[in-house]
């Protein structure tokens, strides 16, 4: 990758591999972190959804030229994999104690300390978005901003809890069977890409199926148990002082959850972008829809596209974001397939 502040060269093969992987020992067990980019740049950490890893959750976004140039020009990306979710992960013993969502949030602090990182930008998808939001609430001084895709913030509803419990039991006793795969595919994607009797599954869904076959089922079960036992963060969101950009697919099962979260955030710091025709995994299904909102969001921190003559090492300062940057007009209201909702 180039060091120039005016351009960035992207090695797509290296990018697809996520850069250099580190196994970080923490109080809660080892966690795999893939580092991509120049470590002298500001840090962006990512956290994927259940049963996925960084290569599937964020590869589509980083393979989008506009998004990759924006992110890799300004950040060194630290992809954190949930315990046992990295490629080739060994089976975690059933005797190993289960971790809670709080444990996973606390684990992130140890990862940051290992790499000598201070305050970081965060990007998470669904379950990963919940963990990063919890982390931001517990360690406010370590988070500069949140970019959340189809986030969770409330305790599971009865229907979600029951569905997760069924999936959890199947994972534990039968592994990643057909029913589990179907439930997860439905969780991630819209009907349009899942296919039907007339239309075949899209390539992205087929690739996801192959990935799920490679998962260690009990490792996935552990992460699912942590998320199914999560608490409600709603009351603490108002005190969250970092800027938050939320993306939600129009057809996501967690649409109401994202809208609820937006209403609980301080309106000065939060923005919601609804992506039409997408499911929950916007970063893979419609990554191009994330580019313009992210660009305006990051401009408030003094971070720009490579065409701008601004150093990627510019200090991040959340106070530099003006409310106008999060207005519907500046967030791409008139650009399909994005429609932005700030006031509900």
UniProtKB/TrEMBL annotation:
GO biological process, one term: regulation of auxin polar transport
Keyword line: Cytoplasm, Growth regulation, Membrane, Transmembrane, Transmembrane helix
GO cellular component: cytoplasm
Keyword Acyltransferase: no
Subcellular localization: Cytoplasm
Parts of the chain that traverse the membrane: 114-137
Annotated InterPro entries: AB_hydrolase_fold, NDRG
Residue ranges that the Swiss-Prot or TrEMBL entry lists as coiled coil: none
Protein name: Protein NDL2
Annotated source species: Cardamine amara subsp. amara
Classification lineage: Eukaryota, Viridiplantae, Streptophyta, Embryophyta, Tracheophyta
């Amino acid at each position: 990758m180039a060091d120039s502040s005016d351009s960035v060269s992207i090695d797509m093969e290296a990018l697809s591999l996520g850069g250099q992987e580190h196994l970080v020992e923490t109080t809660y067990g080892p966690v795999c972190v893939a580092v991509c980019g120049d470590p002298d740049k500001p840090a962006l950490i990512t956290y994927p959804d259940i049963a996925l890893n960084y290569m599937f959750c964020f590869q589509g976004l980083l393979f989008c030229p506009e998004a990759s140039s924006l992110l890799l020009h300004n950040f060194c990306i630290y992809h954190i994999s949930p315990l046992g979710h990295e490629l080739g992960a060994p089976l975690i013993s059933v005797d190993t104690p289960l971790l809670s969502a709080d444990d996973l949030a606390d684990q992130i602090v140890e990862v940051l300390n290992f790499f000598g990182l201070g305050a970081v930008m965060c990007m998470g998808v669904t379950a990963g978005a919940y963990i990063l939001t919890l982390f931001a609430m517990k360690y406010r001084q370590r988070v500069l901003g949140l970019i959340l895709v189809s986030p969770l913030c409330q305790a599971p509803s009865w229907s979600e809890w029951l569905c997760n419990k069924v999936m959890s039991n199947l994972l534990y006793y039968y592994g990643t069977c057909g029913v589990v795969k179907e439930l997860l595919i439905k969780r991630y994607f819209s009907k349009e890409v899942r296919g039907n009797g007339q239309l075949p599954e899209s390539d992205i869904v087929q690739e996801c199926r192959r990935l799920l076959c490679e998962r260690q089922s009990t490792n996935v079960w552990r992460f699912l148990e942590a998320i199914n036992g999560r608490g409600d963060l709603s009351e603490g969101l108002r005190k969250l002082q970092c800027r938050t950009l939320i993306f939600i697919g129009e057809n996501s099962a967690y649409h109401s959850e994202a809208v609820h979260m937006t209403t609980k955030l301080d309106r000065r710091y939060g923005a919601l972008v609804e992506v039409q025709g997408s499911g929950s995994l916007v970063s893979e299904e419609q990554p191009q829809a994330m580019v313009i909102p992210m660009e305006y969001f990051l401009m408030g921190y003094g971070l720009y596209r490579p065409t701008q003559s601004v150093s990627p090492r510019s200090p991040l300062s959340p106070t530099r974001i003006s409310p106008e940057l999060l207005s519907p007009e500046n967030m791409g209201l008139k650009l399909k397939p994005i429609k932005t909702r700030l006031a509900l």
